[in-house]
Predict the structure of Protoheme IX farnesyltransferase, mitochondrial.
Amino acid sequence: MSAARRCRPPRALAGLFVWRLRNTGVQQVPYRFVQLYHIANDRLITFQYFNFLKRMYVTQYNKDLSQRAKPKSDSVVSPFHELQQSDQVKKVLYKISPVSPVHQSQSEISSRNELREIKSETEDSVIPVGAESKEDRQWKEMKLRLDDLPGILARLSKIKLTALVVSTASAGFAMAPVPFELTCFLLASLGTGLASCAANSINQFFEVPFDSNMNRTKNRPLVRGQISPLLAVCFAASCGVPGIALLTLGVNPLTGALGAFNIFLYTCCYTPLKRMSIANTWVGAVVGAIPPIMGWTAATGSLDAGALLLGGILYSWQFPHFNALSWGLREDYSRGGYCMMSVTHPGLCRRVALRHCLALIGLSAVAPVLDITTWTFPVISLPINLYISYLGLRFYRDANRSSSRKLFFCSLWHLPMLLLVMFTCKKSVLEKEDKGDLQGRSCERAMEIRLP
Protein backbone atom coordinates (compact mmCIF):
# COMPACT_ATOMS: atom_id res chain seq x y z
CA MET A 1 0.00 0.00 0.00
CA SER A 2 2.87 2.34 0.74
CA ALA A 3 4.35 1.71 -2.70
CA ALA A 4 0.99 2.45 -4.35
CA ARG A 5 0.64 5.64 -2.41
CA ARG A 6 4.14 6.65 -3.43
CA CYS A 7 3.34 6.10 -7.16
CA ARG A 8 0.09 8.13 -7.08
CA PRO A 9 1.62 11.63 -6.75
CA PRO A 10 3.78 11.27 -9.87
CA ARG A 11 0.75 9.95 -11.83
CA ALA A 12 -1.43 12.77 -10.51
CA LEU A 13 1.23 15.32 -11.43
CA ALA A 14 1.54 13.86 -14.93
CA GLY A 15 -2.23 13.96 -15.43
CA LEU A 16 -2.35 17.53 -14.15
CA PHE A 17 0.46 18.50 -16.58
CA VAL A 18 -1.33 16.93 -19.56
CA TRP A 19 -4.62 18.61 -18.60
CA ARG A 20 -2.86 21.96 -18.26
CA LEU A 21 -1.12 21.51 -21.62
CA ARG A 22 -4.40 20.71 -23.33
CA ASN A 23 -6.17 23.72 -21.85
CA THR A 24 -3.36 26.12 -22.62
CA GLY A 25 -2.96 24.66 -26.16
CA VAL A 26 -6.63 25.09 -26.94
CA GLN A 27 -6.61 28.61 -25.56
CA GLN A 28 -3.44 29.61 -27.44
CA VAL A 29 -4.61 28.33 -30.82
CA PRO A 30 -6.23 31.67 -31.80
CA TYR A 31 -3.15 33.57 -30.65
CA ARG A 32 -0.91 31.30 -32.70
CA PHE A 33 -3.06 31.83 -35.79
CA VAL A 34 -2.87 35.58 -35.26
CA GLN A 35 0.91 35.37 -34.89
CA LEU A 36 1.24 33.29 -38.04
CA TYR A 37 -0.99 35.76 -39.87
CA HIS A 38 1.26 38.65 -38.86
CA ILE A 39 4.36 36.75 -39.96
CA ALA A 40 2.77 35.87 -43.28
CA ASN A 41 1.56 39.44 -43.72
CA ASP A 42 5.11 40.73 -43.32
CA ARG A 43 6.38 38.48 -46.07
CA LEU A 44 3.40 37.78 -48.22
CA ILE A 45 3.76 36.72 -51.85
CA THR A 46 0.60 36.68 -53.90
CA PHE A 47 0.36 35.42 -57.45
CA GLN A 48 -2.13 37.06 -59.75
CA TYR A 49 -3.03 35.19 -62.93
CA PHE A 50 -4.53 37.25 -65.68
CA ASN A 51 -5.92 36.29 -69.05
CA PHE A 52 -4.23 33.98 -71.54
CA LEU A 53 -0.92 35.20 -73.05
CA LYS A 54 -0.51 37.89 -70.42
CA ARG A 55 2.17 38.15 -67.80
CA MET A 56 1.99 36.66 -64.32
CA TYR A 57 2.66 39.41 -61.82
CA VAL A 58 4.10 38.86 -58.36
CA THR A 59 3.49 41.28 -55.51
CA GLN A 60 5.71 41.20 -52.44
CA TYR A 61 5.11 43.25 -49.31
CA ASN A 62 8.07 43.69 -46.99
CA LYS A 63 9.03 46.32 -44.50
CA ASP A 64 11.81 47.60 -46.73
CA LEU A 65 10.19 47.05 -50.12
CA SER A 66 6.67 47.71 -51.29
CA GLN A 67 5.63 47.09 -54.88
CA ARG A 68 2.31 47.17 -56.62
CA ALA A 69 1.23 44.91 -59.42
CA LYS A 70 0.03 46.77 -62.49
CA PRO A 71 -2.01 44.61 -64.88
CA LYS A 72 -1.21 44.77 -68.54
CA SER A 73 -3.58 46.85 -70.58
CA ASP A 74 -5.87 44.97 -72.92
CA SER A 75 -5.36 47.10 -75.99
CA VAL A 76 -3.22 49.98 -77.08
CA VAL A 77 -5.25 52.78 -78.56
CA SER A 78 -3.72 55.55 -80.61
CA PRO A 79 -3.86 59.14 -79.28
CA PHE A 80 -6.32 60.04 -82.03
CA HIS A 81 -8.74 57.37 -80.85
CA GLU A 82 -8.26 58.45 -77.24
CA LEU A 83 -9.17 62.01 -78.15
CA GLN A 84 -12.28 60.80 -79.91
CA GLN A 85 -13.30 58.73 -76.90
CA SER A 86 -12.69 61.62 -74.51
CA ASP A 87 -14.81 63.88 -76.72
CA GLN A 88 -17.59 61.32 -76.70
CA VAL A 89 -17.44 61.06 -72.92
CA LYS A 90 -17.49 64.81 -72.59
CA LYS A 91 -20.49 65.02 -74.86
CA VAL A 92 -22.34 62.47 -72.77
CA LEU A 93 -21.34 64.08 -69.49
CA TYR A 94 -22.11 67.64 -70.39
CA LYS A 95 -25.22 66.93 -72.40
CA ILE A 96 -28.19 68.81 -70.89
CA SER A 97 -31.58 67.38 -71.59
CA PRO A 98 -34.27 69.95 -72.26
CA VAL A 99 -36.90 70.49 -69.62
CA SER A 100 -40.20 69.15 -70.79
CA PRO A 101 -43.22 71.36 -70.26
CA VAL A 102 -45.92 70.40 -67.84
CA HIS A 103 -48.66 70.07 -70.39
CA GLN A 104 -47.77 67.97 -73.44
CA SER A 105 -49.94 66.47 -76.04
CA GLN A 106 -50.13 62.74 -76.61
CA SER A 107 -48.69 63.03 -80.14
CA GLU A 108 -45.59 64.86 -78.92
CA ILE A 109 -44.97 62.24 -76.27
CA SER A 110 -45.28 59.38 -78.78
CA SER A 111 -42.93 61.09 -81.29
CA ARG A 112 -40.32 61.60 -78.60
CA ASN A 113 -40.52 57.97 -77.57
CA GLU A 114 -39.98 56.90 -81.19
CA LEU A 115 -36.90 59.16 -81.44
CA ARG A 116 -35.47 57.67 -78.26
CA GLU A 117 -35.93 54.13 -79.59
CA ILE A 118 -34.17 55.05 -82.87
CA LYS A 119 -31.25 56.61 -80.98
CA SER A 120 -30.86 53.59 -78.73
CA GLU A 121 -30.82 51.26 -81.78
CA THR A 122 -28.18 53.35 -83.52
CA GLU A 123 -26.04 53.50 -80.37
CA ASP A 124 -26.21 49.74 -80.03
CA SER A 125 -25.21 49.23 -83.65
CA VAL A 126 -22.21 51.59 -83.51
CA ILE A 127 -18.97 49.90 -82.47
CA PRO A 128 -16.62 51.97 -80.26
CA VAL A 129 -13.46 53.26 -81.93
CA GLY A 130 -10.99 51.80 -79.45
CA ALA A 131 -12.72 48.47 -79.15
CA GLU A 132 -10.97 45.50 -80.72
CA SER A 133 -12.12 42.00 -81.24
CA LYS A 134 -10.77 39.27 -79.06
CA GLU A 135 -9.17 37.54 -82.03
CA ASP A 136 -7.16 40.66 -82.92
CA ARG A 137 -5.58 40.72 -79.48
CA GLN A 138 -4.39 37.12 -79.65
CA TRP A 139 -1.05 35.99 -81.06
CA LYS A 140 -1.33 34.86 -84.65
CA GLU A 141 0.97 32.66 -86.66
CA MET A 142 2.58 34.58 -89.52
CA LYS A 143 2.20 32.69 -92.78
CA LEU A 144 5.10 32.92 -95.19
CA ARG A 145 4.11 33.61 -98.76
CA LEU A 146 6.35 32.62 -101.64
CA ASP A 147 6.04 36.09 -103.15
CA ASP A 148 7.64 37.67 -100.06
CA LEU A 149 10.39 35.09 -99.69
CA PRO A 150 12.97 36.67 -102.09
CA GLY A 151 12.73 40.04 -100.33
CA ILE A 152 12.99 38.43 -96.89
CA LEU A 153 16.06 36.42 -97.89
CA ALA A 154 17.62 39.53 -99.43
CA ARG A 155 17.24 41.39 -96.13
CA LEU A 156 18.46 38.35 -94.22
CA SER A 157 21.65 38.23 -96.29
CA LYS A 158 22.13 42.06 -96.17
CA ILE A 159 22.10 42.34 -99.93
CA LYS A 160 23.63 45.84 -100.01
CA LEU A 161 26.58 44.80 -97.86
CA THR A 162 26.97 41.66 -99.98
CA ALA A 163 27.05 43.79 -103.13
CA LEU A 164 29.82 45.92 -101.59
CA VAL A 165 31.82 42.80 -100.70
CA VAL A 166 31.48 41.41 -104.24
CA SER A 167 32.50 44.75 -105.77
CA THR A 168 35.68 44.93 -103.66
CA ALA A 169 36.52 41.34 -104.59
CA SER A 170 35.98 42.22 -108.25
CA ALA A 171 38.32 45.21 -107.84
CA GLY A 172 40.99 42.90 -106.44
CA PHE A 173 40.53 40.55 -109.38
CA ALA A 174 40.73 43.43 -111.87
CA MET A 175 43.87 44.87 -110.28
CA ALA A 176 45.79 41.58 -110.49
CA PRO A 177 48.68 41.69 -113.01
CA VAL A 178 47.38 38.79 -115.12
CA PRO A 179 45.19 38.52 -118.22
CA PHE A 180 41.48 38.79 -117.48
CA GLU A 181 39.52 35.51 -117.52
CA LEU A 182 35.75 35.90 -117.56
CA THR A 183 34.91 32.38 -116.30
CA CYS A 184 37.22 32.62 -113.30
CA PHE A 185 35.91 36.13 -112.56
CA LEU A 186 32.28 34.98 -112.54
CA LEU A 187 33.01 31.95 -110.37
CA ALA A 188 34.99 34.05 -107.88
CA SER A 189 32.28 36.72 -107.69
CA LEU A 190 29.50 34.15 -107.24
CA GLY A 191 31.40 32.21 -104.56
CA THR A 192 32.29 35.39 -102.67
CA GLY A 193 28.66 36.56 -102.77
CA LEU A 194 27.37 33.23 -101.45
CA ALA A 195 29.93 33.23 -98.64
CA SER A 196 28.91 36.78 -97.68
CA CYS A 197 25.20 35.81 -97.66
CA ALA A 198 25.95 32.88 -95.35
CA ALA A 199 28.01 34.99 -92.94
CA ASN A 200 25.37 37.75 -92.73
CA SER A 201 22.55 35.24 -92.16
CA ILE A 202 24.41 33.54 -89.31
CA ASN A 203 25.19 36.95 -87.82
CA GLN A 204 21.49 37.87 -87.75
CA PHE A 205 20.62 34.47 -86.29
CA PHE A 206 22.92 35.10 -83.30
CA GLU A 207 21.86 38.70 -82.71
CA VAL A 208 18.06 38.42 -82.68
CA PRO A 209 17.56 39.35 -78.97
CA PHE A 210 19.93 42.30 -79.30
CA ASP A 211 18.64 43.57 -82.64
CA SER A 212 15.13 43.74 -81.19
CA ASN A 213 16.27 46.55 -78.85
CA MET A 214 17.69 48.74 -81.62
CA ASN A 215 15.65 50.99 -83.89
CA ARG A 216 18.01 50.35 -86.81
CA THR A 217 17.66 46.56 -86.67
CA LYS A 218 14.24 45.94 -85.12
CA ASN A 219 12.64 45.33 -88.54
CA ARG A 220 14.95 42.52 -89.58
CA PRO A 221 13.19 39.32 -90.71
CA LEU A 222 14.17 37.17 -87.74
CA VAL A 223 13.27 39.88 -85.23
CA ARG A 224 9.81 40.38 -86.73
CA GLY A 225 9.22 36.66 -87.08
CA GLN A 226 8.83 36.75 -90.85
CA ILE A 227 11.10 33.73 -91.16
CA SER A 228 11.85 30.91 -88.75
CA PRO A 229 15.36 30.42 -87.28
CA LEU A 230 15.51 26.95 -88.80
CA LEU A 231 14.85 28.33 -92.27
CA ALA A 232 17.49 31.03 -91.72
CA VAL A 233 20.11 28.45 -90.72
CA CYS A 234 19.18 26.25 -93.71
CA PHE A 235 19.52 29.26 -96.01
CA ALA A 236 22.95 30.07 -94.54
CA ALA A 237 24.10 26.49 -95.02
CA SER A 238 22.75 26.36 -98.57
CA CYS A 239 24.77 29.50 -99.38
CA GLY A 240 27.94 28.82 -97.42
CA VAL A 241 28.66 25.23 -98.47
CA PRO A 242 28.23 25.76 -102.24
CA GLY A 243 30.05 29.09 -102.04
CA ILE A 244 33.16 27.63 -100.40
CA ALA A 245 33.05 24.58 -102.68
CA LEU A 246 32.82 26.85 -105.71
CA LEU A 247 35.79 28.94 -104.58
CA THR A 248 37.87 25.88 -103.72
CA LEU A 249 37.11 23.66 -106.72
CA GLY A 250 36.22 26.23 -109.36
CA VAL A 251 38.84 28.89 -108.57
CA ASN A 252 41.70 27.64 -106.36
CA PRO A 253 42.11 26.23 -102.83
CA LEU A 254 43.74 29.41 -101.50
CA THR A 255 40.70 31.52 -102.33
CA GLY A 256 38.38 28.90 -100.82
CA ALA A 257 40.43 28.84 -97.62
CA LEU A 258 40.27 32.64 -97.37
CA GLY A 259 36.48 32.52 -97.86
CA ALA A 260 36.00 29.89 -95.14
CA PHE A 261 38.29 31.82 -92.79
CA ASN A 262 36.35 35.01 -93.41
CA ILE A 263 33.03 33.32 -92.53
CA PHE A 264 34.57 31.96 -89.32
CA LEU A 265 36.09 35.34 -88.44
CA TYR A 266 32.81 37.18 -88.99
CA THR A 267 30.47 34.78 -87.21
CA CYS A 268 32.60 33.30 -84.42
CA CYS A 269 34.95 36.20 -83.60
CA TYR A 270 33.45 39.52 -84.67
CA THR A 271 29.84 38.77 -83.68
CA PRO A 272 30.50 37.80 -80.02
CA LEU A 273 33.17 40.50 -79.63
CA LYS A 274 30.58 43.18 -80.34
CA ARG A 275 29.23 42.66 -76.80
CA MET A 276 32.59 42.11 -75.10
CA SER A 277 35.25 44.57 -76.28
CA ILE A 278 35.87 47.49 -78.63
CA ALA A 279 38.40 45.25 -80.41
CA ASN A 280 35.48 44.09 -82.54
CA THR A 281 36.00 47.13 -84.81
CA TRP A 282 39.53 46.03 -85.70
CA VAL A 283 38.40 42.43 -86.24
CA GLY A 284 35.55 43.65 -88.45
CA ALA A 285 38.03 45.72 -90.46
CA VAL A 286 40.05 42.56 -91.13
CA VAL A 287 36.85 40.85 -92.30
CA GLY A 288 36.22 43.67 -94.76
CA ALA A 289 39.84 43.63 -95.99
CA ILE A 290 39.83 39.95 -97.02
CA PRO A 291 37.44 40.14 -100.08
CA PRO A 292 39.84 42.17 -102.31
CA ILE A 293 42.61 39.77 -101.32
CA MET A 294 40.33 36.91 -102.38
CA GLY A 295 39.84 38.59 -105.75
CA TRP A 296 43.60 38.94 -106.21
CA THR A 297 44.27 35.33 -105.24
CA ALA A 298 41.47 34.14 -107.53
CA ALA A 299 43.27 35.77 -110.49
CA THR A 300 46.89 34.98 -109.58
CA GLY A 301 46.67 32.01 -107.22
CA SER A 302 49.18 33.55 -104.80
CA LEU A 303 49.41 36.19 -102.07
CA ASP A 304 51.50 39.08 -103.38
CA ALA A 305 52.30 42.57 -102.15
CA GLY A 306 49.53 43.99 -104.32
CA ALA A 307 46.93 41.86 -102.56
CA LEU A 308 48.11 43.10 -99.18
CA LEU A 309 48.04 46.70 -100.41
CA LEU A 310 44.42 46.38 -101.55
CA GLY A 311 43.54 44.76 -98.25
CA GLY A 312 45.27 47.60 -96.40
CA ILE A 313 43.26 50.23 -98.30
CA LEU A 314 40.00 48.48 -97.43
CA TYR A 315 41.17 48.04 -93.83
CA SER A 316 41.88 51.75 -93.34
CA TRP A 317 38.78 52.91 -95.20
CA GLN A 318 36.45 51.04 -92.83
CA PHE A 319 37.45 53.06 -89.75
CA PRO A 320 36.21 56.50 -90.90
CA HIS A 321 33.22 54.78 -92.51
CA PHE A 322 32.10 52.78 -89.47
CA ASN A 323 33.19 55.22 -86.75
CA ALA A 324 31.19 57.99 -88.38
CA LEU A 325 28.20 55.68 -88.72
CA SER A 326 28.39 54.44 -85.12
CA TRP A 327 28.66 58.00 -83.76
CA GLY A 328 25.10 58.76 -84.80
CA LEU A 329 23.89 55.38 -83.49
CA ARG A 330 25.37 55.57 -79.99
CA GLU A 331 21.99 55.40 -78.27
CA ASP A 332 21.00 52.41 -80.35
CA TYR A 333 24.23 50.54 -79.68
CA SER A 334 24.08 51.20 -75.95
CA ARG A 335 20.44 50.09 -75.87
CA GLY A 336 21.33 46.90 -77.72
CA GLY A 337 24.25 46.11 -75.39
CA TYR A 338 27.01 46.47 -77.99
CA CYS A 339 30.46 47.61 -76.91
CA MET A 340 31.50 50.22 -79.47
CA MET A 341 34.20 52.88 -79.46
CA SER A 342 31.67 55.63 -79.99
CA VAL A 343 29.90 54.61 -76.76
CA THR A 344 32.72 53.66 -74.39
CA HIS A 345 35.74 55.50 -75.89
CA PRO A 346 34.49 58.52 -77.87
CA GLY A 347 37.90 60.22 -77.97
CA LEU A 348 39.56 57.09 -79.35
CA CYS A 349 36.78 56.78 -81.92
CA ARG A 350 37.57 60.21 -83.34
CA ARG A 351 41.35 59.73 -83.28
CA VAL A 352 41.20 56.36 -85.04
CA ALA A 353 38.96 57.77 -87.78
CA LEU A 354 41.35 60.66 -88.47
CA ARG A 355 44.40 58.39 -88.28
CA HIS A 356 43.15 56.04 -90.96
CA CYS A 357 41.98 58.90 -93.19
CA LEU A 358 45.60 60.04 -93.30
CA ALA A 359 46.74 56.44 -93.78
CA LEU A 360 44.82 56.30 -97.08
CA ILE A 361 47.17 58.99 -98.48
CA GLY A 362 50.22 56.94 -97.55
CA LEU A 363 48.81 53.69 -98.92
CA SER A 364 47.98 55.39 -102.22
CA ALA A 365 51.59 56.56 -102.47
CA VAL A 366 52.88 53.01 -101.91
CA ALA A 367 51.00 51.60 -104.93
CA PRO A 368 53.50 52.78 -107.61
CA VAL A 369 56.41 51.73 -105.42
CA LEU A 370 55.09 48.15 -105.48
CA ASP A 371 54.75 48.43 -109.29
CA ILE A 372 50.94 48.09 -109.16
CA THR A 373 49.99 51.50 -110.59
CA THR A 374 51.73 54.35 -112.29
CA TRP A 375 52.93 57.46 -110.48
CA THR A 376 49.88 59.35 -111.62
CA PHE A 377 47.69 57.43 -109.17
CA PRO A 378 48.96 59.17 -105.98
CA VAL A 379 48.57 62.54 -107.71
CA ILE A 380 45.04 61.95 -109.00
CA SER A 381 43.84 60.33 -105.78
CA LEU A 382 45.33 63.06 -103.59
CA PRO A 383 42.31 65.45 -103.77
CA ILE A 384 39.75 62.87 -102.69
CA ASN A 385 42.08 61.58 -99.97
CA LEU A 386 42.67 65.12 -98.72
CA TYR A 387 38.93 65.80 -98.68
CA ILE A 388 38.10 62.75 -96.57
CA SER A 389 41.03 63.66 -94.30
CA TYR A 390 39.59 67.17 -93.94
CA LEU A 391 36.21 65.72 -92.93
CA GLY A 392 38.00 63.37 -90.56
CA LEU A 393 39.71 66.37 -88.97
CA ARG A 394 36.38 68.15 -88.57
CA PHE A 395 34.94 65.01 -87.00
CA TYR A 396 37.92 64.87 -84.63
CA ARG A 397 37.58 68.51 -83.55
CA ASP A 398 33.80 68.87 -83.45
CA ALA A 399 32.25 65.45 -83.06
CA ASN A 400 28.56 65.98 -83.63
CA ARG A 401 25.82 64.53 -85.78
CA SER A 402 26.53 66.88 -88.69
CA SER A 403 30.26 66.15 -88.97
CA SER A 404 29.75 62.41 -88.56
CA ARG A 405 27.08 62.34 -91.30
CA LYS A 406 29.31 64.25 -93.71
CA LEU A 407 32.22 61.89 -93.09
CA PHE A 408 29.98 58.84 -93.49
CA PHE A 409 28.42 59.98 -96.77
CA CYS A 410 31.84 60.96 -98.08
CA SER A 411 33.12 57.45 -97.38
CA LEU A 412 30.30 56.00 -99.49
CA TRP A 413 31.57 57.59 -102.71
CA HIS A 414 35.24 57.77 -101.71
CA LEU A 415 35.93 54.04 -101.95
CA PRO A 416 34.46 53.38 -105.43
CA MET A 417 36.13 56.55 -106.71
CA LEU A 418 39.50 55.52 -105.29
CA LEU A 419 39.26 52.00 -106.73
CA LEU A 420 38.20 53.36 -110.12
CA VAL A 421 41.15 55.76 -110.21
CA MET A 422 43.43 52.94 -109.13
CA PHE A 423 42.13 50.74 -111.96
CA THR A 424 42.61 53.46 -114.57
CA CYS A 425 46.20 54.01 -113.38
CA LYS A 426 46.99 50.29 -113.30
CA LYS A 427 50.09 49.14 -115.11
CA SER A 428 49.21 47.01 -118.09
CA VAL A 429 50.31 43.42 -118.41
CA LEU A 430 52.26 44.17 -121.62
CA GLU A 431 54.36 46.81 -119.89
CA LYS A 432 55.23 44.38 -117.11
CA GLU A 433 56.05 41.65 -119.64
CA ASP A 434 58.27 44.02 -121.62
CA LYS A 435 59.91 45.12 -118.42
CA GLY A 436 60.45 41.51 -117.43
CA ASP A 437 61.92 40.70 -120.87
CA LEU A 438 64.27 43.65 -120.61
CA GLN A 439 65.40 42.58 -117.15
CA GLY A 440 65.90 39.03 -118.43
CA ARG A 441 67.93 40.21 -121.41
CA SER A 442 70.07 42.47 -119.24
CA CYS A 443 70.75 39.56 -116.90
CA GLU A 444 71.73 37.36 -119.87
CA ARG A 445 74.10 40.03 -121.20
CA ALA A 446 75.63 40.40 -117.78
CA MET A 447 76.16 36.66 -117.62
CA GLU A 448 77.69 36.66 -121.09
CA ILE A 449 80.07 39.46 -120.15
CA ARG A 450 81.11 37.67 -116.98
CA LEU A 451 81.77 34.44 -118.87
CA PRO A 452 85.32 34.25 -120.41
About this structure: The radius of gyration is 39 Å. The longest helix spans residues 2-42. DSSP finds 19 helices and two strands in the chain.
